[in-house]
Design a protein that fits this description.
Elements lengths: L9 H14 L4 E7 H9 L2 H4 L4 E8 L1 H4 L2 H11 L5 E4 L13 H6 L3 E4 L3 H10 L5 E5 L6 H14 L4 E5 L4 H11 L6 E5 H7 L6 H6 L2 E5 L3 H17 L4 E3 L11 H10 E8 L3 E10 L8 H4 L15 H5 L23 H4 L4 H7 L7
Parallel strand pairs: 1-2, 1-7, 3-4, 3-5, 5-6, 7-8, 8-9
Antiparallel strand pairs: 10-11
Helix pairs in contact: 1-12, 2-17, 8-13
Length: 364
């Protein structure tokens, strides 16, 4: 087990762990939604430091992981259209679709380029005015405002060759779907700090109000996560679930109004298909009609065959918290960081990648 003195502020960590051990008497199972939390929990061995009354499950993780194979197939087919430049964040390059990845498409001649921001995609569109440039817009509420800003900038500059393929996902509907399915019994949710910086803690009120589930929003340092776990434990012991903010230096109740308004101006809420969940209502973002000229799906009306999942891959169940990566028959055998089969191993924030990098026994 990792020693407490390895942490940045060991005295604070020690006090917080002691408080958790003293407070926790009821069995409790918490789920962290965010892959950043999963990686921090495994990296610092937090599960091994907690009392046996507390169990932590990993949830949907990251937008790369939950991007459906059918959407990847669409993006790959789009990238193969004559003259198209498709831009994407690096994690999406190796995520497998039904018949390969964007990286495979590039190897076969498609012009697929990795970018670090929407500004990079805009710069490419400016540099190649005679070629359509598509930005693969994958992300939760954290990245959607930047994509909305890019659309507004393209409109201002009259960049008629810039398009986005919006595969954005909204986090609360996925959490609602997990709880409504009843496949895992949860007593609390560790809310994603970066997402909640945008949407605000009020967006999670449905958890205690409708499901009787406690929620504590956390940052990504070990102390942040432990503060959230203590808050969840305290609510379980009190029998009084609510939403608590353990990331006050970044998160407020109402969230970031500027970012919210920018998203609302450019996007409308729409159904979206999630890997492992299927089609979820009101869980995605589509361009509003006034920005339809930037919609890659309308510019390239492509129909793809039904998607095919990798044989034996259980990413869908991992994303819903039903199993851990260790229970997937491909994990650390056919599916490794060097030869990933499923998106949970490809993505830098995927649960399988975290288990492969750190493992549950890391530091023992």
């Amino acid at each position: 087990m990792r020693f407490v003195d390895e942490f940045r502020e060991p005295a604070k960590v020690q006090r917080l762990l002691e408080a958790i051990w003293q407070r926790s008497t009821e069995a409790a199972q918490f789920m962290e939604f965010c892959g950043g939390h999963t990686h921090a929990i495994l990296k610092f061995g937090l599960r091994q430091l907690l009392p046996s009354t507390i169990s932590l499950l990993s949830g949907p993780g990251c937008p790369v992981c939950v991007t459906a194979s059918s959407d990847l197939d669409l993006a790959i087919t789009m990238a193969c259209q004559s003259g198209v430049i498709l831009t994407t964040f690096g994690d999406m390059m190796r995520v497998p679709g039904s018949h390969g990845s964007l990286q495979d498409a590039r190897a076969l001649g498609a012009d697929v380029r990795m970018v670090y921001s929407t500004l990079d995609a805009l710069a490419i569109a400016r540099s190649y005015p005679d070629r359509p440039t598509v930005f693969l817009a994958v992300g939760f509420e954290t990245t959607a405002p930047t994509v909305a800003a890019a659309v507004l900038q393209a409109q201002t500059e009259r960049l008629n060759n810039f398009f986005i393929l919006s595969l954005h996902k909204l986090t609360p509907p996925a959490t609602r779907a997990i709880l409504s399915a009843g496949e895992v019994l949860l007593t609390g949710i560790i809310g994603p700090g970066h997402v909640t910086t945008i949407i605000g803690t009020d967006a999670w009120k449905f958890l205690p109000d409708e499901f009787g589930i406690a929620c504590a929003v956390a940052g990504f340092e070990p102390l942040d996560i432990l503060h959230a776990i203590y808050a969840l434990v305290d609510m379980v012991e009190l029998g009084a679930p609510s939403v608590r903010n353990a990331y006050g230096r970044s998160v407020s109740a109402a969230g970031n109004h500027v970012a919210q308004q920018m998203m609302e101006n450019v996007f409308r809420v729409a159904p979206a298909e999630w890997r492992g969940f299927g089609m979820l209502p009101n869980s995605g973002l589509a361009l509003r009609s006034e920005y339809a000229s930037f919609d890659a799906a309308q510019r390239f009306p492509i129909t793809v065959p039904p998607a095919r999942e990798p044989q034996g891959c259980r990413c869908g169940e991992i994303l819903r918290g039903i199993i851990t990566p260790l229970e997937c028959p491909l994990f650390a055998r056919a599916c490794t960081p060097a030869t990933p089969i499923g998106p949970c191993m490809v993505s830098g924030e995927g649960a399988c990648a975290a288990y492969a990098q750190y493992g549950e026994a890391s530091g023992d």
